[in-house]
Write a structure and sequence with these properties.
This protein has 1024 residues and is an alpha+beta fold. It contains 18 helices and 57 strands.
Length: 1024
């Protein structure tokens, strides 16, 4: 080993050299970058360092000096693709630089800095930390930049757009080190809370958003054993991952009272290996990027006993080198500096390294050939990482057509990213950009050109454009602006307007994306709060008497009850009976006796004796005194007349059902008064009807009304009150009643599901039983008895499909064409898939007005309002949030690190997307199908699944241009409401950027004419 310390290789000051905190070598091995307390990021020529002892060497030594931070710089790192350079400092910022190919400008006048040789300019300044930034790391594919700091946060940035994707606050103290797994599956962080945490992630695509990464970057395990008593005096805890992905080296660990560097094994995360040899705490560990062999590699045996080399250094000012073939350090070098060593950077050849120290020195150490061993080819590294799913190579371009297809695929992604960035910066204009001023017929009119279509002009007159939506807050803001106050001296002054008051409550003053803005503008009645507390008025929520009465209660006088001691109880009982209560026993002088008159009140329905022996028993709703149903919302069970006054002023038609509650007029219990059906709108009677039996459930929409009685009968009326059918005689009382458009659903108490088309007077299938889904959900072979699953809700979609959600998180739909129940959602996807999103409940649901009852209102910008996300939210609430999937989560986490399950998470994620596609096809969910197909194509392209991609493209080609792959009848040219040709074109464009797949995608691109198009029309609509 040889050591070189050039005198000029430093961050010099007027009185002393500045402390150097970090260094890194570029992936091409040409540049060394260092960071120090002078606030400069300096780039040096490694060739000049190697020739430091050569007096004839006259090339530039320092390449550039960047001063964009306002404090001490703690870390600098090149991106693996050699495109970016990032730095983090105690000014809380992360700066990203790029190399400009243009010639550099001259040094600042009056500065002593060496004129720059390379033109490095700042590209992004990232704001996300609340304290000093201590360390940075790039993912192996440069898709992620992660930063950690003294604010105990881990901030994940996109390596493409540098948007903040996620902030992780899992640590309880300062985070001082981070490193990425070379297989691109994990990253590890080290903190002063005396733990190393491993996080699992999936590399995000270029057009990803923070919302897409909600369920990414999840904690895998927290390791604390070797760090329980580690000192808190180290400035860094820089860790490193071995090039074969098998080991993680963590600094500042202890074995008893002895300072060590801990080696953590991948998969089991065992930390029993200790590297003992340093006299003080270690601050930095760094693996050599190459794998070595003890013998010269040959064609038949490229690596004999492959080893990895690890360098450790810290506060004892010494350097130790270890390999996997020895239990003791291979080399130990003491007193390399006068202060602690802060960072280590290996060169790409793996046989030389740089060390920085807080004494301001930079040390270059290089080894002679074979001193560390024989470096094996880089293909061996790729093969070693392949067992963990890493090391995929970039394919070769398949001719000029493949290059055109790749450029179109990437340009579409960049357009998406640019549009989202414009939305974040407040520059978005609802999909249109202002065009240049055009003079027509002597007039200067501004014509707006849309991104998706252009509107022609006729006779010099531009087509009318819709007026922009009026801002609901404009009037209030204008009123506030014009508010005039009079001062004490009689002068008029305009009161200042607070900036935060110019926006609606609960909205941010920052620019919003179009998605967020559309969600806020399209909020339905269900998402609005039921009660709004006006803080500008005194709060009258306390009871009479104030806070003291709330704590101790009010003393009521006997005179307030309006009765004496003997009649006080009977008076209260009478008031309760008038409100609809039923007297069971009367308190008399002879004790508890039966009342004089039996009252027929709100009693539960009486079950038929034959039904009690049924295999399935669903709960029957209790007969209520008053039931209301508004077309603007769900049915409400109301027991008093006063409580229904609020619904009387509803602008939608309201159905009221008044069941008999008083005593019988004939004296016989079986002679009950008929149930009264009243439909009103704004207190105006539309129509009324009477039914001989008590009503238990009602439903309706703008096409019909329906009511179910306690004897199993079902009645249907037109909107005008005309009875459309005779009463339906069902086998049992109705337990669930729902409607959607022309479809009517009734699930009886014995588990039979009826669906009718009221407009066509037909049924899509015979009555079906819910027994299969109840038996499928039950765990009959468990070690002990468990609670049976229950039905959370059952509803129809716009296609008349029956969807049922269970209490164990499962969800089912009945296929009318295949006559079988299909499971759409389950807990298995929630714990195993990377595409499961637990935050979808925050999205806005569609409006439940009369128009929304007719069809499922789902759009691409609000896809979470669809039926499939609704079922997945039910799975989340019933399993994950209630802890019912705890042991299943433990099983999945164990399988992720078990041998033979390396592709487990990827397989489950792809299967989840396929399940979503099949569910959208079954339910006819148009918008959801398109979104899930795009996600599925992107995942297949990332995985390189050629067989599945060929099958997907072949299935989409069927029906396009009359193509029939099976030689049978002509295949329809539409799929789930979309043109197959448009779907095929979108999938081919998504897959076009993957060179390994261009042998499959280029023929389809030629067939569709993509390689010859200059523009691409993304309109996927189907004419009605």
């Amino acid at each position: 080993m040889h050591i070189v310390k050039p005198m000029w290789l430093k961050h010099g000051g007027e009185k002393k050299d500045f402390e150097i905190y970090s260094c890194h070598v570029s992936p091409d091995g040409i540049r060394l970058v260092t960071a120090a307390g002078d606030g400069y990021v300096r780039l040096w020529s490694i060739d000049a360092i190697k020739n430091a002892t050569n007096p004839t060497y006259d090339k530039p030594r320092q390449l550039a000096a960047l001063s964009y931070h306002s404090g001490t710089i703690h870390t600098v790192r090149f991106s693996p693709n050699n495109k970016y350079l990032a730095s983090g400092a105690d000014d809380k910022y992360v700066c990203v630089y790029v190399l400009d190919p243009n010639a550099p400008t001259h040094a600042t006048f009056g500065s002593n800095e060496t004129p720059p040789v390379e033109n490095w300019r700042i590209y992004r300044r990232l704001i996300g930390h609340d304290n000093d930034v201590q360390d940075l790391a790039w993912s192996p594919d440069s898709s992620i930049l992660a930063s950690v700091g003294l604010d105990s946060k881990i901030v994940i940035w996109s390596g493409h757009t540098f948007e903040k994707l996620k902030t992780i606050s899992q640590h309880g103290s300062h985070v001082k080190g981070i490193t990425f797994d070379p297989a691109n599956k994990y990253f590890a962080t080290a903190s002063d809370d005396r733990s190393v945490k491993i996080f699992r992630y999936t590399p995000p695509p270029p057009n990803t958003t923070a919302h897409d990464q909600t369920n990414n970057f999840m904690l895998e395990i927290s390791i604390t054993a070797p760090f329980v008593s580690s000192p808190l005096t180290t400035y860094f805890r820089r860790c490193s991952w071995s090039p074969d992905g098998n080991s993680l080296a963590a600094a500042n660990a202890v074995n008893g009272q002895v300072p060590i560097a801990a080696v953590i094994q991948r998969g089991t995360w065992d930390s029993s290996i200790s590297l003992i040899g340093h006299e003080g705490p270690t601050e930095v560990c760094a693996f050599s990027p190459r794998i070595f062999s003890k013998q010269a590699p040959t064609a038949n045996e490229p690596a004999s006993s492959p080893t990895t080399v690890l360098a450790c250094a810290g506060q004892d000012r010494s350097l130790s080198l270890w390999d996997t073939c020895h239990t003791h350090p291979v080399y130990t070098f003491e007193n390399l500096s006068t202060k602690a060593i802060s960072d280590i950077a290996w060169c790409p050849d793996g046989e030389s390294l740089f060390l920085t120290s807080l004494d301001g020195t930079i040390t270059y150490a290089y080894f002679s050939e074979t001193e560390l061993g024989y470096p094996v080819p880089m293909e061996f590294n790729m093969n070693a990482l392949a067992r963990y799913g890493g090391g995929r190579k970039v394919g070769v371009i398949e001719g000029p057509d493949g290059l055109v297809l790749e450029e179109k695929s990437k340009s579409d992604e960049l357009r998406t990213v640019q549009g989202r960035m414009d939305g974040l910066m407040g520059d978005a204009t609802n999909g249109s950009t202002p065009a240049a001023d055009i003079v027509m017929n002597g007039t200067n009119d501004k014509v707006t050109a849309s991104n998706t279509s252009s509107k022609a002009t006729s006779n010099g007159v531009a087509p009318a454009t819709p007026a922009p939506a009026e801002d609901p807050n404009a009037a209030r803001i204008e009123k506030l602006k014009q508010r005039v106050t009079i001062t004490k001296d009689g002068k008029k002054r305009v009161a200042p307007l607070l900036m935060s008051s110019a926006v609606a409550p609960g909205q941010s003053t920052l620019p919003q994306t179009q998605l967020q803005a559309s969600i806020i503008r399209g909020s339905g009645t269900e998402s609005a709060p039921q009660t709004i507390l006006d803080l500008s008025k005194p709060f009258d929520g306390l009871p009479k008497g104030g806070l003291s009465s709330l704590l101790f209660g009010n003393k009521r006088k006997l005179a307030e009850t309006g009765a004496d001691d003997d009649n006080i109880i009977s008076t209260r009982v009478g008031e309760a009976q008038r409100a609809g209560a039923t007297t069971i026993l009367a308190n008399t002088t002879e004790g508890l006796t039966l009342p004089n008159q039996a009252v027929m009140g709100a009693d539960p329905s009486i079950m038929n004796s034959s039904i009690t022996m049924s295999q399935i028993r669903l709960a029957v709703p209790t007969v209520r005194a008053l039931i209301t149903r508004s077309l603007g919302g769900p049915a409400k069970m109301i027991e008093t007349v006063e409580a229904s006054k609020a619904s009387a002023t509803d602008e939608f038609p309201v159905m009221e059902v008044r069941n008999h509650t008083g005593p019988s007029r004939t004296g016989r219990l079986q002679d009950r008064e008929p149930a009264r059906i009243i439909v009103t709108r704004k207190n105006q009677l539309l129509w009324q009807d009477f039914l001989p039996r008590a009503v238990v459930l009602v439903t309706g929409n703008s096409r019909y009304w329906a009511a179910a009685c306690d004897d199993g009968s079902l009645y249907v009326w037109s909107p005008a009150g005309r009875r459309i059918f005779n009463a339906f005689a069902l086998e049992a009382q109705t337990a669930i009643l729902d409607c959607r458009g022309p479809w009517l659903l009734s699930i009886t108490s014995v588990g039979l599901c009826h669906v009718w088309n009221i407009e066509d007077s037909s049924a899509p299938h015979p009555p079906i039983s819910v027994a299969p889904i109840l038996d499928m959900a039950a765990q009959a072979q468990g070690p002990h008895l468990t609670n049976g699953p229950a039905i959370i809700f059952a509803r129809l979609n716009s296609e008349g499909r029956v969807i049922v959600a269970m209490s164990n998180g499962d969800a089912y739909a009945y296929s009318a064409s295949m006559f079988v129940w299909q499971r759409l959602s389950e807990a298995w996807w929630a714990v195993g898939s990377q595409y499961w999103n637990t935050s979808m409940s925050a999205q806005t649901a569609p409006s439940r007005g009369a128009d929304a009852e007719e069809n499922d209102v789902v759009r691409a910008e609000n896809i979470s309002a669809g039926i499939i996300p609704l079922l997945e939210r039910n799975t989340t609430s019933q399993t994950l949030l209630r802890g019912r999937a705890f042991f299943l989560q433990r099983l999945v986490k164990t399988l992720l690190s078990a041998e033979g399950y390396e592709g487990f998470e990827s397989g489950v994620s792809v299967a989840h997307l396929e399940n979503r596609l099949a569910a959208a096809t079954t339910l006819g969910a148009k918008e959801e199908f398109k979104v899930y197909l795009s996600m599925y194509a992107k995942r297949l392209g990332a995985e390189g699944s050629k067989l599945k991609i060929e099958e997907l493209l072949r299935s989409l080609l069927e029906g396009v241009h009359g193509e029939d792959m099976h030689g049978g009848n002509k295949t329809p040219d539409e799929l789930c409401g979309w043109k197959k040709e448009a779907l095929l074109k979108e999938v081919v464009l998504i897959l076009g950027k993957y060179r390994d797949l261009q042998r499959v995608t280029v023929p389809y691109a030629r067939l569709l004419g993509i390689t010859h198009e200059t523009t691409y029309d993304s309109d996927m609509g189907v004419d009605a």
